[in-house]
Amino acid sequence: DxxxxxxxxxxxxxxxxxxxxxxxxxxxxxxxxxxxxQKPGKAPKVLIYAASTLQSGVPARFSGSGSGTDFTLTIxxxxxxxxxxxxxxxxxxxxxxxxxTKLEIK
Amino acid sequence: EVHLVESGGGLIQPGGSLRLSCAASGFTVSxxxxxxxxxxxxxxxxxxxxxxxxxSTYYADSVxxxxxxxxxxxxxxxxxxxxxxxxEDTAVYYCAxxxxxxxxxxxxxxxxxxxxxxxxxxxx
Lengths: 106, 124
Description:
The complex is a heterodimer. Chain A is mainly β.
């Protein structure tokens, strides 16, 4: 089974900051990686798929990069509505989610 | 508009059974990959099961042999039959459509949309 490890597990930042969340796969997954945002009490929402493709309707301040085993999600100029939990997910071999990164207001 | 609505959750004793339903609108479940993902209270997301367009099904090791995914094309609904339930199965269960696939431009799969979730509580 492929394991997905996110870092950090939690992160404090301010409105306007640039933040980066990383996701590492236990083996190469090519570009078969997606990123999700989840707010409390709500279902997750896809932000990025295929490592770097922005889902329609998602603000351009979100971006993704990486391939193989190492991936990043970057949020430029944090907005108040971006404080949430973020998950990565691989689809190279069935499906696995990372453990999540909680982004909190500093 | 594409929409998923789960139902069937509730309180059940350990060892019991429950069937979750996921009613789809705006698309056809039999021509899409469909999946269940769960989230234990205060925890992260855990992939549970998938049913592919050809009918193949796959499960997480934690539920294999106890949970069964199926679909009814006439009702445009996906189900999750849950047997031999354990306390550790307590979670919000989400239904999601999987987009992408091996014939897509990227080959990657992603989950979109998701339903609102249904809570399953396994407790005596």
